[in-house]
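Figure 3 (text version): structure tokens given as input.
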């Protein structure tokens, strides 16, 4: 019985060691990130989290599920009931679970324009003209033509512009909910 337990413990030890080795290999073979922080954050207002649609405006952090789906009807919920995708599939909208308030919007196409006039497909220079030079730049060492420019402060109240080949390919607006 004692030999059996020793073999079982040895098997467990081998599995744990192999998992640790694989984890270290993965960790040290991944390209690093370079993060450049601005001297000061860009101040964003609630207006900066407002997007114009054909039927009106949507404000991340304020608009409810009913308001958004009335302006972008015919979409579908994905996975959890807190994610909504309009039929054009040009954005994803995430809502809070309890309050059902829009708290994150991913924009993939030029149909939606930020309150400062920037849209997907614009050159990055349009972002800098509209939002200024104070952004956090995140880039991967192995993809020099791709980076993210993050405007705002904190992880929950920001606008992220994903840029590839000097063109905006995605805009993410994320804002804590604002209960009136």
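Below: residues designed for each position.
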């Amino acid at each position: 019985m004692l030999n059996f337990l020793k073999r079982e413990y040895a098997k467990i030890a081998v599995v744990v060691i192999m998992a640790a080795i694989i984890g270290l290999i993965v960790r040290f073979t991944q390209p690093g990130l370079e993060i450049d922080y601005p001297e000061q954050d860009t101040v964003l207002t609630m207006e900066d989290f407002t997007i114009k649609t054909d039927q009106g405006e949507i404000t991340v952090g304020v608009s409810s599920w009913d308001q958004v789906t009335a302006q972008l009807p015919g979409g579908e919920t994905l996975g959890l009931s807190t994610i909504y995708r309009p039929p054009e599939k040009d954005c994803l909208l995430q809502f809070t679970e309890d309050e059902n308030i829009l708290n994150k919007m991913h924009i993939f196409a030029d149909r939606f324009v930020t309150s400062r006039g920037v849209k997907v497909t614009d050159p990055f220079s349009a972002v800098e003209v509209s939002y200024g030079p104070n952004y956090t730049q995140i880039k991967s060492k192995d993809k020099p033509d791709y980076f993210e420019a993050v405007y705002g402060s904190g992880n929950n109240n920001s606008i992220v512009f994903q840029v590839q080949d000097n063109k905006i390919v995605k805009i993410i607006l994320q804002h804590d909910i604002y209960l009136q």
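The chain is about 25% helix and 35% strand.
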